[in-house]
Amino acid sequence: MACSFFESKPVTEQVCQIKCPQDCVVSKFTPWSQCDNCIRVNSTKLRSIIVPPANGGTECPPFSEMSPCLNCSDSYTYKIGPFEKCIPFDDQKIKKVHPLIGYQRRTIECLHSYGPSVNLRYCTDSISILDTNILTTIQTCIIPQDCIVSEWSAWKPINGSCIDHLGNKRPGYMTRTRSVIQIPMGSGKSCPELENHFEVKGSVDTLCPRAKWMTSSWGECETSSGSYQCKAGLLTRSAICVEEDDGYLKPVPESKCPIERPLTSQVCRAQCNLDCTVSQWTVWSECKVTDCELYIRRRRTNEGTGQRYRTREVLTPSEVHGEPCPHLSETQTCDPQPCYQWNVTVASCILLNPNSPHQCGLGQAYRTIACINKFNHRVADSLCQELAEHPDGKEDCNIPCPNDCILSQWSLWTECPNLCQEGHKQPAIRTRYRTILARSSQDGAPCPPSRLLQEEELCPTTIQCAVYVWQTDPWEEPCEATDMKKRCGNGVMKRHVNCYNEQGQPVNDQRCTLDVKPAETKTCTVPCPIDCKLTEYSDWSPCTTTCWEAKQVVSVQTRQRFILQQAQYGGAPCPEKLTEAQQCTDLPLCHGYYWDTEEWSDCILPPRVPYCGKGLQARNVTCKSENGTSVSFNLCIRHSGLIPLISKPCYRSCNDECLFTEWSEWSICVDGCNGKRFRTRSLIDDPVKNVPLHCRNRMLYPIDEFERCLCDVPQPVPVGNWSECILEMSDDPSYSKGTRSFQGYRTGYQAPYEGIHAICGSGKQYKVLACQNDIGEIEPASHCSHMSYEEEVCIIPCPVDCVMSDWSPWSDCSTSCGTGAQIRYRHIKQIPSDGGRPCPKLDDVGMKETQTRICRSDCIKFVWKAYEWSMCVSFNKTICGEGSQTRSVRCEAVSADGQMVDKVDSKKCQAHQQPVDKQSCYAACVSDCVLSDWSEWSLCKESCDDNMHYQVRKRQIMRRPYPIHRCNSSLEESRLCLKGDNCIEYRWEFSEWTSCLINSGLDECGVGHMQRHAICKNHFHEEVEHYMCEKVLGPVYDPLVASCQVPCDTDCLLTHWTSWNECSHTCGLGTSYRTRAIVQEPQGNGRACPASLQQHKPCLNQGCYSWVVSPWSECTTEVGVCGYGVQTRNVTCVASNGLPVNASRCPPDLNVVVTQTQMSCQVPCPGECVMSQWSEWSDCHVSCIDLNQGYNRGIQSRSRAILLYPIMSSSPCPDQLWESKPCTASKCYTFEWKVTPWNKGNSRSVTCLRSDGLEVTGGCINPKPRVLLTCDPPCIVSHSYCNDTNHCTCYPPLLPVYTNSGHLTSCLDKVSNQTAAVLVSTPKIQQDTSLGGSGAEVGVSVV
Length: 1343
Known about the structure:
mainly beta, five-stranded antiparallel β-sheet, five-stranded mixed β-sheet, 33% strand
């Protein structure tokens, strides 16, 4: 507790890992080796390590087993010693010794198969050597000469230190080289390193040159050919790979730039030949005074003083050569409500004689007078005096007496006619009337004459028929800068806007409404000049030739730069020349270096007797320039090919040998490349001694040879596979005429499938042609043919599009009077198939595509017009009493807006019921109460459904009765508004929108307009005249014309194909491809994009030739020989097919030239330790438990085995027989026992298998299953057998019965459950004293 006060108690337990022991696992043995020779006197079988032992596991068993070779118990072997150093000849007797040739010696012993050295005759007697020269102790050789190289060149930088785009510092590198002055000869030292470099870590902050894509400015919008002119097009630009270094952009090969190339095309909208479309006219505005001062001046000159106008708006503007927009406003002159007028209020009439007995007669009424403007606001009286005199302050009046004539009130003024109808040339007049209600008596005031019962005046608002319009000129170009000191920036464009009459003549601008005058200026931007922008020049290209030769065209090299931005708006223009060329002046002379070879020396033999057998010939080879100066070997190797042979073997025959001349050169090919060629030699006759007879045997010593000619003349042959089908005819950026509207395909026009973007049609497949000869040398087709490819026509089937017929003519208007609709249709001519474009949406009934539009018919309706009733005339011809009155009823022509046009014959109104023109009445007598006519019923409120509204009409007393001054008649009446009776509701309804018509139906897609018309209906759903709704509801304010758009069915729009990229292989058969990208996905029913955006084509730049250095051969000696031998390897120039070709085909490589192709080696002799080669590295091993827990660190190993143990006097074998290294495992293995079924001999095989089926030893952890099947005591009970656990049991379906000690006694039938029934024989059970008591029965158990 005390310690815990100061610090926490340390943990007493922690997790640890107890590593399980890993036993060594080895493979199964190989078969026994053969006892073919007696160099090794035993046969061996080997196995290799699979898993090394670890953590105390069982060590590895021996990797080899040996068995003595019975036939090698008493054998002998030559032991060849190494050749001594090659020394020059010093014997003056040997003439014409070449300085490169010397001789060398070696020792030869004879060994017993168990190792001791014995007399040489034992080997001579027991070993038959085919080549006796193997046993020579002296031979000629090339005197060793070490490789001699020049001094190192000065250090040159490859690149400097810099910082990459990620901020990491990249070191620079310096390099130096040296050349070979003398190649190594014989056993001389090989050449040292010929190139060296080291890393330079600078502290500079220079950015590393980095390649990136630069793009030029966008070009103009280009469209594909086709009948439809308004479509999407392509803007294109160039992508140039440049390298940025110190702010300069230098073009470099595209392979240096990132793989993702920037998009070089984008969609644009091409200008279309679209006509301007406009909306319908708005309703005429009210006649308004635009300028009250002008109004006063015009009133003085009796001119129109106001204006009214109507407008329309542009739905689709005109483009390119389309029809321009018409005028958008119209103005008419009219006489409006005056700007100022006298407002007069009259008081009650006051009798001049207040004492009159009848309280009637003349009187005066006073007026209240004020000058008001059109907003009913009082203004100065002087403003009204300009227009009219100041009214009097009072007026005469009359209070009717009982005997006076009584007149009705004035009626409403008649409607003013439509002044602009033909035939109306007179001023517009309106009229009002009054009638006599009661005649006067003899002493009363008389009635006025009939002419005074009617008044006429000019219509207060006179509208002139002349129309004036604003017309605009095109905008003046160019845009003018507002600040003249600057060349660019904000500017203004101007145009002339003038007022014209209907005849196109200019008039004063005051004639047109200034409120709707189009703008005469608009802001614009004066673009600033943009100078041409170029990249820097690229690096100079390689010269057209690598060396200079007399009479040849001077070699040149070029460089180029690219335009990033074209000059615009007056900027500095781009140069016309973007490529520069220069002559290559520092090229070496062609064939300026050559190999200078001397004659071959005589065949030089070593100093031995007899002086015959194998020898060497040599010659001097020097690299020289054309002036005879010796130069470095490098130059000749680079320009003249490989070094010629410096030495070659030769042979001098001995006395008993046949002598022949050297073989002649091969003859020319007989029968061409497919024929044969020959060479010959002849027997040399010795004049001193006779030539042995066997030398003339042509079977043993042929004197002529032939071989099949390998044709070195290249022939064009196709190589590789066919390319895909490539449609390549033109370079149209549309994809199958890609952006024409889909409807354009429906009118019977079927666009051709052409262009490299086409999706179908006739194309070509390509197979590379190459020039190849029989040797296997292959070159591009240009070396033997004028064609680079073999071509084959291919067909890609085309889909069939829907084709529609032409539109039918527009039908007649659905109404002969007013606004209606017209319809047109078209039908399917060709049903689509094979993925063609589908047909448009069709009517469900007629299976046609329909379009509608609004139509209007100017119409005149004929209606009855009833005028005011005449005075009531009594029947008895008296002045009062019952009588009748009449009125004028006539047939009039009325326009659609309810305006009376003319009086016509009554026959034209026969379709309508004629109003009555006569009715009964009562004429008031003298002293009767006289009332005015009833006023019109007041209007019911708009809703007639609640039955709570009333109509009212009134009348007034025109003359009071005498002597009683009260009228008993009602002066006001009311009636309930009843729907369908005196209450009529009206509402505006609208027709369906018409089809969206583009360019008045001439085009199929784009921006257009759709229309509808208003319909006036009553609550009986009857269509009535518009003016009825306008009277109650006012004009229509909802839009009747709306802008709309029909999207063009646009095909997939693709970029241009890129150029074919470089061949994927610099040599041999490769693939070139080009790509394109999707600029715009298809819209509507446009064609889908192709599945592949790449095209591939095989290509061949040149044949592939490479130097192949074979592995070292095994150490070889003659049969029955051990000791020092030779290992060799070949350096061969081979083609891509693996066949050897002329060494000049391979690139000159100094390292290959100086490659050692022969070296000394040693074959173990009897009595020495012999080891096998190292095995291959095993698979990476990790336990599955570890791998499942995420630990993939494993181990792999290899082993070698002892093939022969050494004798006591020889060096012992090495101790290390296996080695291991860590590795990363991707999978794990398990080990399990695999057993075969028991055979008739009661045995089976048991093997340990790895989970991949490899048979191993030591990997299985579980106890090994038994191999032999034995039961003790034996299974003698009938129907019993010995099972896998070595116990006796019964064959099914019998049940075994055992004693307490586990011995089988019987097999029980489980059906009868009786042991006796199945006992065939029961063995005698011996007494077991351990069970207690003599003769005791043995207990049994049934299992």
